[in-house]
């Protein structure tokens, strides 16, 4: 299912533990790491697709997480031609994604990379929120940066209260130290309004 511009609707998931670290999955049989993500099936809402993908990719059920926030608009990335199947070239351009920020309310042992017969990941770990994006395939880095930046204002404080503002102005020193160099001088910004 593609939109008229050649983008497949998709969801991305940033899963937080109680320390505001993010779930980072290693794609099966590769050296690249990423957040859980997947396509929105015909008739599904983004939220329904997120819960389905959450189970398929990391084995979690809705009762294991709480939705903290989601991106306001679609975030897009184009897939280079060398990664596109020949029969899809010419009309498929890439993915457009709604990103969800989730808080794990269950336990690490609830995670199960083998919840389905077609696992996406063969390893996982918790990483600081501002995860180094050099381990992500290059054409997804911009969307990861945009999703992390937009959703960072909703990171729960360690005292349990939601936090407003950019992480630069409100984060503790641990987060500030882990900000990537290209993110340190970012101006406070609203999310980019993009047509869906």
What does it look like?
The chain is α+β, with helices and mostly antiparallel strands and 196 residues long. The chain has one domain: Nucleoside Triphosphate Pyrophosphohydrolase, CATH 3.90.79. The protein is 18% helix and 25% strand. The chain has helices spanning 46-58, 141-152, 167-170, 173-178, and strands at 7-16, 22-27, 33-34, 37-39, 65-70, 75-78, 94-104, 121-127. Strands 1, 4, 5, 6 and 7 form a 5-stranded mixed β-sheet that branches. It has a 3-stranded antiparallel β-sheet with strand order 3-2-8, with no helix packed on it. Strand 2 and strand 3 form a beta hairpin. It starts with 6 loop residues before the first strand and ends in an 18-residue tail after the last helix. The model is unreliable at 164-196 (pLDDT under 50).
The first-level CATH class is given as: Alpha Beta
Order of helical and strand elements: EEEEHEEEEHHH
Helix content: 10-25%
* Low-pLDDT windows of residues: 164-196
Q: Sheet with the most strands?
A: 5 strands, mixed
How does the overall form come out from the CA principal axes? globular
CATH topology: Nucleoside Triphosphate Pyrophosphohydrolase
Which class of secondary structure composition applies to the elements? alpha+beta
What is the residue-mean pLDDT, rounded to a whole number? 83
Tell me what portion of residues adopts beta-strand conformation.
Answer: 25-35%
How many individual β-strands? 8
Distance between the termini: 14 Å
| Overall tally of structural domains | 1
Instruction: Give me the number of helical elements.
Output: 4
- Rg (C-alpha, Å): 16 Å
User: What would CATH call the architecture?
Assistant: Alpha-Beta Complex
- CATH superfamily descriptor: Nucleoside Triphosphate Pyrophosphohydrolase
